[in-house]
Structure formats: C-alpha cells, structure tokens
Amino acid sequence: MDFPLALRERRTRRRVSQLDLALRAGTTQRHLSFLESGRSVPGRDMVVRLAESLDLPLRERNELLLAAGYAPVYPHSSLDGPALAPVRAAIDHILRGHLPYPALVVDRDGDLVAANAALALITEGAAPELVGPGTNVYRLALHPDGLAPRIRNFAEWARHILARIGHLAELRAELAEYVPDLAPSDGQLGFAVPLRLASSRGELHLMTTVTTFATAVDVTLAELKLEAFLPVDPATAEALAAAAVAAAGPRPRGSGDQTREDA
User: Fold this and answer.
1) Could you list the residue ranges forming a coiled coil in this record (predicted)?
2) What is the reported pLDDT for 252?
3) What are phi and psi for residue 48, nearest 5 degrees?
4) CA dist., res. 152 & res. 182, Å (int)
5) Does residue 229 share a domain with residue 166?
6) How many other C-beta atoms lie within 10 A of the C-beta of residue 141?
7) Residue 21 maps to which CATH number?
8) How much is the pTM?
9) Residue 233's domain is classified under what CATH number?
10) Does residue 17 sit in the same domain as residue 102?
11) pLDDT for 259 beyond 70
12) Would residue 258 count as lying in a domain?
C-alpha cells in the first residue's frame, strides 16, 4: 500500500477530518492534503506524528512508516526472548494474584499465551484440541465442542465475542456459523453482558475485564490482553473459591500442623 492511500484510509476509518488531524500533528491542512494526494513526500518524523495523532496501534504505525519508505520504529520482540522477560514475570504475578478467579492472556489473534489454574473450571468438558497454550480462546468460546453447549446466554455472549474480533475477518466468518439466529434475552446486568456458564460447581455468573499494557512501545507487548473473569454474585464467588481449594488438594502436614496424637 502506498503512503497517501494508507494515510487516507486510516484517517477516514477513524472519522478524523484533514483539519483536525493537521491540528493534532502540528501541521497545516494544506500540507496534509498534499501528503494524501501524493504531491508531497513526508519526512520520517511527520509520519510518526501523524500515526501518533491518529492513535494507531504500534503495528499499524510500523506499516505506515514502511508505506512511506522508512524502517519500522517499534520493535516486535518474541515473548520468549530476554527483552520481554520482565513482562513474563509480571504476567505470572498478575495471573496468580487474580486467583481464585479465572484469568488469561491472549495475543492479537486471540491465541492463548498464559492462564491461571482457575481457568480449568471454565474450560471443563471442552475438547482437548481447543484448550491450552496456542489455542484460540474465541474458537473455544463459540465452538460446539468448546464452551458453547454450557453457555446459558449463548446468543448474547456470542455477539459480544464477534463484536471484538472484527479485525480477524476469517476467524469471525468461521465462528459466525456457530451462532444461532436468536433474539437476545433480557438476562443482562444493565451495565455489562454476563457470562452464564454451567459448571460442575453450579451455574457461574461472570463478568469480564480486559487490561492492556498502556505504555508499551513493543508491538508484541502492546497487543497482549489480559482478560479477567469476576463473579457477579456471592454464589459464583463461593463456587470459584471452593474450586480453587479443591484443586490445591490437601495441605501437606508440617511440624506446625501436628495433631495431638502426633505430639
């Protein structure tokens, strides 16, 4: 894609006028018009300013630089590499800290990067090939061999998932085939769409939060999302706590745990 077309497409997609973008980027509407028509060639700093002013994801900022003939600015590190070792440690800390509630980390495509032990209650009964690192959590949620048969408000939840993956056209088309043409029910919280999921601990009522690394300057890090499940009601909180205790198993007996008979 050439630069004028790339810039115009991204500006239009974000519904930003030439004048507004020019003001944000510290230039004139006339100069921006020349850039979008190909009459002027942008400098590297101008491309970066325009990308920042449009609040483009880091991946798209690199693409805009490449379209203008410049090398990418933002690195794309491997999550397994030494540069992101502190990130892996932070992710592990956050996932453990969220227990006994389920939490997971996914990449841009929705592939599972990491999860805590509490996710096992969510995924119980799903086909093994749909569960585990590297598998797609959106496919797990909507596939007939995944969570779909256990989701009591499948129509609402499926539409919530599909709305999040508009940037993944092929995957969205696949998953849309699994979604029934049903009218959403009234079973909402009023402020969020809950996940109502049947489980071995009873029906769980969960809402989700999504967290990102806000100050990331690495493409890999910027595209990671931590999704945490939180209980909507006390019954769900108790069920998750009980599942965590059961999964931990009996506490090993140490010198401080001796019974009177042992003493």
Assistant:
1) none
2) 60
3) -65, -45
4) 13
5) yes
6) 24
7) 1.10.260.40
8) 0.82
9) 3.30.450.180
10) no
11) no
12) no
Q: Report the alpha-carbon distance of residue 139 to residue 182 in Å, rounded.
A: 19
Distance CA 18, CA 29 (A): 6
Considering the domain boundaries, does residue 253 fall inside one? Answer: no
Identify the domain boundary among 40, 67, 94. 67
H helical segments located in the chain: 3-13, 18-25, 29-37, 44-53, 58-67, 85-97, 119-123, 137-142, 154-164, 169-176, 219-222, 234-248
Among 230, 206, 102, smallest CA distance to 156 is for 206
How large a percentage of the chain has pLDDT more than 90?
78
Q: Which of 217, 165, 225 is nearest to 58 (CA)?
A: 217
Q: Which residue has the tokens 């079973």?
A: 187
Q: Give the tens place of pLDDT for each residue, 195-238.
A: 999 999 999 999 999 999 888 899 999 999 999 999 999 999 99
pLDDT at position 151 over 80: yes
What is the full DSSP assignment across 12-59? HHTT--HHHHHHHHTS-HHHHHHHHHTSS---HHHHHHHHHHTT--HH
Where in the sequence is the domain holding 29, given as residue range(s)? 3-67
Q: Tell me how many domains the chain contains.
A: 2
